[in-house]
């Protein structure tokens, strides 16, 4: 059987790199997308082995031209694209309130965290339809859960980051809409919260290592055909929107 092929965005370090590692250990060919050519190529080389098939290609999720180019590359080289992990994301407003939110920061955050995943999904899904198989995993956050945002006793109530929160809420909405439109196609779309992971974004105080944070996204990326779609998961369990 031909290897399945996965595209993982923002995978030159941290959680994305660990997701790429675990997918490759499942026998899946992984294409790392990164906007830094040197770091992306080094990341792919660090994972490559006799048992792992890992490749790199330039990708800036805020640039439609690089999105089209990487999808065309994957199809041209491998003839298929089975799995999309929308992992690339930014959080640059951690000390900002909603009333103080700079519109440029808000726009940049939405373009990276929500518009990029939409454009990538639109580019990948036609090829998934051709193979009657697809798994799309949107790396989201409990910070984007409307249920959690509204809860006064939430453990995350002290976290500000309005642009990040709103971008992840939008990403969750994208997950639901895509899953609804793709019912019956064997293309499953889900959001995953990896938890508070010790990465450059999560910081050194985070309790989880990248290997632990990658478990739920990798599980969703390898779901059987009767697996769930349109859900929001953490630790392989559904959580409220």
Description of the structure:
- The N and C termini lie far apart (37 Å).
- The protein has 241 residues and is α/β, with parallel strands linked by helices.
- The radius of gyration is 17 Å and the shape is globular.
- It has 8 helices and 8 strands, in the order E-H-E-H-E-H-E-H-E-H-H-E-H-H-E-E.
- Helix 3 (64-78) packs parallel to helix 4 (103-131) and helix 4 (103-131) runs parallel beside helix 6.
- Helix 1 (14-25) links the parallel strand 1 and strand 2 (29-34).
- The model has no long low-confidence stretch (mean pLDDT 93).
- The protein has an 8-stranded mixed β-sheet with strand order 3-2-1-4-5-6-7-8, sandwiched between helices.
Rg, Å, rounded: 17 Å
Task: Report how far apart the termini are.
Answer: 37 Å
Q: Which percent band covers the strand fraction? A: 15-25%
Q: Give the SSE string.
A: EHEHEHEHEHHEHHEE
Give the tally of β-strands. 8
Shape: globular
- Mean pLDDT across all residues, rounded? 93
Percent helix: 40-55%
Largest β sheet strand count, sense and barrel closure: 8 strands, mixed
Based on secondary structure, the structural category is alpha/beta
């Amino acid at each position: 059987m031909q290897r399945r092929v996965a595209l993982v965005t923002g995978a030159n370090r941290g959680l994305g790199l660990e997701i790429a590692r675990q997918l490759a250990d499942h026998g899946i060919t992984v294409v790392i997308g990164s906007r830094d050519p040197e770091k992306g190529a080094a990341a792919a080389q660090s994972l490559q082995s006799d048992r792992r098939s890992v490749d790199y290609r330039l990708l800036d999720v805020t640039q439609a031209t690089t999105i089209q180019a990487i999808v065309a590359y994957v199809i041209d080289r491998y003839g298929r694209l089975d799995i999309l992990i929308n992992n690339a994301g930014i959080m640059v407003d951690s000390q900002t309130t909603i009333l103080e939110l700079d519109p440029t920061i808000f726009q940049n955050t939405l373009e990276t965290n929500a518009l990029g995943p939409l454009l990538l999904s639109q580019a990948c899904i036609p090829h998934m339809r051709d193979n009657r198989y697809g798994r799309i995993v949107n790396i989201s956050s409990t910070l984007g859960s409307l249920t959690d945002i509204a809860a006064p006793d939430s453990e995350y109530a002290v976290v500000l980051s309005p642009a990040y929160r709103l971008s992840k809420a939008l990403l969750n909405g994208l997950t639901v809409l895509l899953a609804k439109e793709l019912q019956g196609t064997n293309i499953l779309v889900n959001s995953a919260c990896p938890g508070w992971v010790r990465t450059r974004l999560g910081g050194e105080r985070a309790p989880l290592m990248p290997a632990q944070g990658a478990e739920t996204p990798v599980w969703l990326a390898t779901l059987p055909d009767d697996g769930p779609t349109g859900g929001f998961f953490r630790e392989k369990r559904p959580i409220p929107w």
